[in-house]
């Protein structure tokens, strides 16, 4: 599978992070306290202020992001964001929830849903999240290091919308979260689900 590295400077921030700096080839991002992505479901609020560095994601392409989540407080999160507009987006990656590291995804089409599963042994390690766009669907996988890929989600999307994708992070409950993004790649969409 041929992938190409996306230079950090080619992306455009949805919201400026509180702090961002380069450390060698890596991009270190600190999101603002209270930043998040969510629309309505169960909680009743809308948050659309998590920093994401996005570039175009045409049909038949996949985005892949490597990162280390440098936090372990409630709802610290990082991964990949696919976004068409404020009401159509998918965030996928890892998030601390109730004392555990969870891998999961939120799919939003007007309102948000949420699915998670524990990945406690991934804490403090480099994680890769891959979102593969094919027609009206996105397949999201994640892994830690060189471990096997885990399917996180197969989700519908509107293929007529202009999708963009790239790394994101958020810190809904505290200040000072540090997320180290190691790589951002684009390549062909996956051939199969499994």
Task: Explain what the structure shows.
This protein is mainly β and 194 residues long. The chain has one domain: Jelly Rolls (Sandwich), CATH 2.60.120.200. Helix content is 0%, strand content 56%. Strands 1, 3, 4, 8, 14, 15, 16 and 18 form an eight-stranded antiparallel sheet that branches. Strands 2, 7, 9, 10, 11, 12, 13 and 17 form an eight-stranded antiparallel sheet that branches. Strands 5-6 form a two-stranded antiparallel ribbon. A hairpin with a 1-residue loop joins strand 11 and strand 12 (111-112). The model has no long low-confidence stretch (mean pLDDT 94).
* Helix fraction by DSSP (H/I, runs of at least 4): under 10%
Computed Rg:
15 Å
Count of the domains: 1
Strand element count? 18
CATH topology group:
Jelly Rolls
- Please state the overall shape, judged from the principal axes of the Cα atoms: globular
Distance between the amino and carboxyl termini: 15 Å
So how many helices?
0
Pfam families: DUF1349
Protein name: DUF1349 domain-containing protein
Organism: Kineosphaera limosa NBRC 100340
InterPro entries: ConA-like_dom_sf (IPR013320), DUF1349 (IPR009784)
Summarize the entry for a quick read:
It contains no helices and 18 strands. It has 194 residues and is mainly beta. The chain is globular and about 40 Å long.
Topology:
Elements: E1 4-5, E2 12-13, E3 19-23, E4 26-30, E5 37-39, E6 46-48, E7 53-56, E8 61-69, E9 77-85, E10 88-97, E11 100-109, E12 111-112, E13 115-118, E14 127-134, E15 137-144, E16 150-156, E17 164-170, E18 179-188
Antiparallel strand pairs: 1-18, 2-7, 3-4, 4-18, 5-6, 7-17, 8-14, 8-18, 9-10, 9-17, 10-11, 11-12, 11-13, 14-15, 15-16
């Amino acid at each position: 599978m041929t992938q190409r590295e996306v230079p950090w400077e080619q992306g455009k921030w949805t919201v400026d992070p509180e702090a961002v700096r380069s450390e060698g080839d890596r991009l270190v991002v600190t999101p603002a306290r209270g930043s998040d992505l969510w629309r309505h479901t169960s909680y009743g609020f809308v948050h659309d202020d998590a920093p994401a560095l996005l570039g175009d994601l045409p049909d038949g392409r996949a985005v892949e992001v490597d990162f280390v989540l440098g936090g372990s407080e409630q709802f610290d999160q990082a991964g990949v964001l696919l976004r068409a507009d404020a009401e159509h987006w998918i965030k996928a990656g890892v998030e601390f929830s109730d004392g555990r590291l969870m891998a999961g995804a939120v799919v939003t089409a007007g309102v948000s849903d949420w699915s998670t599963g524990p990945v406690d042994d991934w804490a403090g390690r480099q994680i890769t999240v891959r979102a593969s766009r094919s027609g009206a669907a996105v397949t999201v996988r994640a892994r830690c290091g060189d471990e096997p890929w885990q399917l996180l989600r197969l989700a519908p999307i509107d293929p007529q919308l202009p999708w963009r994708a790239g790394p994101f992070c958020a810190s809904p409950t505290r200040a000072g979260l540090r997320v180290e993004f190691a790589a951002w790649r684009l390549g062909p969409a996956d051939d199969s689900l499994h």
